[in-house]
Fold this protein.
Amino acid sequence: MVHIISFSGGKDSTAMLLKMIELNYPIDIVMFADTTLEFPEMYDWIDKIESLIKYKIVKVKCKHTFDDWFYGIPKKGKAGARGLIRGFPLTAYPCWWSRDGKIKPMEMKYKKDNTIYIGIALDEKKRAEAKRYQKGDNVYKFPLIEWGWTEKDCIKYLEKRGLNHPLNGKFKRTGCWLCPKQNKESLKNLYLNYPELWNKLKQYEKDSPFGFKPNFTLNKFEEKINNKKKRHEQQWTE
């Protein structure tokens, strides 16, 4: 039985990793699935955490790129029959890129008969009930839930250790920067602070047959932000 920590690099999985080491949990592998769509700060953070622990973080990737999947034509379904590219994952369903760019590469690496630790906090306990954690030949454990730790507890723990996650407070989701499940505040932050990523996202939206979000366009969202900014500046000059 191999003990594997699924390390996403987010605040929750970081707190779980460090606390497990502190409590002398059995750990054989610390694994990070690189979707290739992480924020630039995330890669620096992962290097920093690796420098603090005695384990080498094993990095795995999908053999296909996000663009391969985004611009690829599915073999099944109505979209494929119409010759449409996949485009963005639908917000109402599990993300196909999370499945193919994150979950599958890790499953290919650890195969079966392992104990896998997942950094899901108590706030999101329902996520631990996903079917993929209930089937197969691996045992999934959720230390944060077992400890009763919420996301705030994870932040406090990291702060006590002098660690402030660089994406904490900036984005609700710290995984893929182009995730259509990001809330509006996170998208605003992306627009204001990551112009290159924002412009790339707009190109993806233009190319995607299903758009970025239902009843939502990045151009209109950008307009609202700029108009609000102009009104605010006018108030200060009057």
Notes: The longest strand covers residues 29-34. The beta strands are 2-6, 29-34, 57-61, 114-118, 139-141.
